[in-house]
Fold this protein.
Amino acid sequence: MTAADLVLPEARSGRRRATKAGKQLHAGPVTYVALTVFALVSLAPLVWTAIAASRTDRRLAQAPPPLWFGGNLFKNLETAWDQAGLGTAMLNSVIVAGAITVSTVVFSTLAGFAFAKLRFRFSGLLLLLTIGTMMIPPQLAVVPLYLWMSDLGWSNQLQTVILPSLVTAFGTFFMRQYLVQALPTELIEAARVDGASSLRVVWHVVFPAARPAMAVLGLLTFVFAWNDFLWPIIALNQQNPTVQVALNALGTGYVPDQAVIMAGALLGTLPLLIAFLLFGKQIVGGIMQGAIKG
Amino acid sequence: MTSKEALAHPASSAETAPGIPPGAVRGARGRGAPDGAPSWRSRLYRWDTKASPYAFVTPFFVLFGVFTLVPLLYTVWYSLHDVQLSALDHQSWTGLANYKNLLSSDFFWNALRNTFTIGVISTVPQLMAALWLAHMLNYKLRGSTVWRVVMLTPYATSVAAATLVFTLLYSWDGGMVNWILHFFGVDPVNWRESDWGSQFAVSSIVIWRWTGYNALIYLAAMQAIPADLYESAALDGANRRQQFWHVTIPQLRPTVLFTIVVSTIGATQLFGEPLLFGGVSGTKGGSEHQYQTLGLYMYDQGWIIGNLGKASAIAWTMFLVMLIIAAVNLLLTRWLRRSDDRG
């Protein structure tokens, strides 16, 4: 595939496994049974969401509960898409989470690179500030943000949701930690000696080296942005919701048809699951590489 | 080769020399500056070297400053004022009135208690299960990647979707959980109304979503433990179980601390799960406020009741609670390490 795959976990863990092969024990049957139980618990709620979303019953809370697929999936999905406004919400969430992800990854990589490899005044102090502010809860910013938004007349507009999350302290720190060990300083120096400008160095040296971590940070950021509840629910109303806001309305409103609610839940989590199935291996690899360490 | 040709084939040297990234071109040397005064090019180069780090960190700090740090200070300001949603233009200085109001409110103490209880019953079992799961994933497995991806799927489920499903499973009459309990001859539990039942139900959503994620973090740390530690433990006659307790667990301590801190931060801010679980009375955290967390309490005070000054005070109180818990965590680890050294 690409150069990124060369440094991706399969290659690495393969080498690691070779060295540990003698020491690593094979799992016994008990372990497999226990893992299967964990796997079932992990998957069952999702599978049951799909089952519930495909039923014709309006009430799913019944004894015995429905345990197999009905034939109504597409009709329920359609109802959720149109009537519960999930269609608009999906598009909004893709725009919001997409914009936040791209911006966080790019700016975190730039700042992380500067903190990891370049010398500049106050760099230690600024890094401390970044680490120190990683713990700030979002609750601490929402009241002023809400008042500014009211002044600007921006309530219910997507940029209101996007702007406050364009960068995160965690992202910058994460990229710095990765680049400190993954980007050889000689490589940058060589490029500088050759007279390459900083932008060229970033484009041709830093970004390629940072790619695996960028993929992981991108996925983490996308999941976070997709799931963000507090600020969107304050900033948006039902006319222009994100998925979480729309699902909240669906769950707290009076929709008697529980199969439609489940269809909405299925729709609302589908993009995440698809992204995850496409890049799951990479994100697992990213976590396994210890990129997500304190 | 004239300088024109060098410009026309900027990557020629890079093409022939593997290992030098394209773009790190050796053309600059071919276009040497005239002797004597430094050329504009080298001056530009030096300026570029000096200024670029600032250019790289500026976007981050500008955006972060405007949307996180500045609002933080404004929140202090608003917490000392009377700010009502219905009359945003009439803000009057009230000093510490919002904080006094808060500390004398039963609902605040109730929310603090709930946040703590739900935090403990969602974090402790979650991290213990994650540790056990990581230990099992650390064996040689058939299809190890598949197992790992499966364990991580709950993390990739949207909060709202997961909560809607669990709410249905926990329904009072006809929910699957009570149906299963009935199957085993246990009386049905009112997961929505009872105190411990509803708190357990909310916690279970958190546990379900985060166990696999933390297990992978532990697994990464386990795989980084040097094998010779186990070998020397084995030479000392330690069996598998003793190796786990005397090698794996101590080696994992920094990672465990990290996950405790992160989970604690998450637990302090818990918002979406109880909100949706509560349905119509979501912001109250149930009919009796039995699972109203601090996050819900703040939203309810600020945007349902409309007292933004008080909401600001709640936000700062939440931050303080978090700092206290983090400090306690740190002290505990120090104390543990010291007692370990003595032992």
Summary: The longest strand of chain B covers residues 87-93. The domain at 105-341 of chain B is CATH 1.10.3720.10 (MetI-like fold).
